[in-house]
């Protein structure tokens, strides 16, 4: 399995529009963070978790030639806004794009992309095949996926485990019974927004504490704000089994 970090930034991305802070002014390519999502290559299959506003740019940068399915973590715009750009794959692959999402995410997609769900569609709009998921494991193109429910303030969000790899973004709290599903993962991706308390995201310290409890071989942090600090400064202070993700980072599991 190959995982590519398509984006590792929080909802505004880094740099933030009109911000002159040291992180937003940094020349380090690792301080340029598009909105968070990952691309997974498992055998011959190609999947993405989320399609944020930078989806088009991410697919171009990583030269993703085929896409077999999309799995959504939750309905926030920074995770869904790019769904219109699946049209290129609809045209190339000549089929509807399989989309895996919970009931509430599907309802939101129907509101935000109403034209995709009309009976009589305008020619050329994206076409999707919706698969509703819940708390039970499911299969995407023959790949087993275990959903992990996490809380993002009051909004339930799904993390996903694919074999030894678990991806969790936009979490502030994870119940014990859900953490049990994460245990044993070799690679764990977690959100770590910033240093100071936040109502709906783990801080750097909270994310580190969770890694210490789960004890994966390696953990990578994502969904990073400009308030966290520069990549180089923050990473230098982390234990050796925790790295900050950056856009374009690839890991083979
Ligand atoms: Zn988000
Ligand atoms: Zn800034
Ligand atoms: Zn969110």
What would your notes on this structure say?
- By secondary structure, the protein is of the alpha/beta class.
- Helices cover 21% and strands 28% of the residues.
- The chain is built from 7 helices and 14 strands.
- The chain has helices at 55-61, 77-80, 87-93, 103-112, 176-182, 204-214, 231-236, and strands at residues 2-7, 37-42, 45-49, 69-71, 97-101, 128-132, 138-140, 143-152, 155-162, 165-167, 187-191, 218-222, 242-244, 250-252.
- The strands form 2 sheets. Strands 6-5-4-3-2-1-14 form a 7-stranded mixed β-sheet.
- The termini are close together.
- The model has no long low-confidence stretch (mean pLDDT 97).
- Bound molecules: zinc ion (3 copies).
- The site of one zinc ion has 6 residues, from helix 2.
- One zinc ion is lined by residues 15-16, 19, 21, 23-24, 226.
- Report the strand count: 14
Distance between the termini: 5 Å
Supply the number of helical segments.
7
Strand content: 25-35%
* Fraction in helix: 10-25%
* Broad structural category: alpha/beta
Bound molecules: zinc ion
How would you write the strand order of the largest sheet?
Answer: 6-5-4-3-2-1-14
Supply Rg: 17 Å
Unreliable sequence segments? none
Oligomer: single chain
Which overall shape is indicated by the principal axes computed on the Cα atoms?
A: globular
SSE sequence, one letter per element: EEEHEHHEHEEEEEHEHEHEE
The main pleated sheet reads as: 7 strands, mixed
Output mean pLDDT. Answer: 97
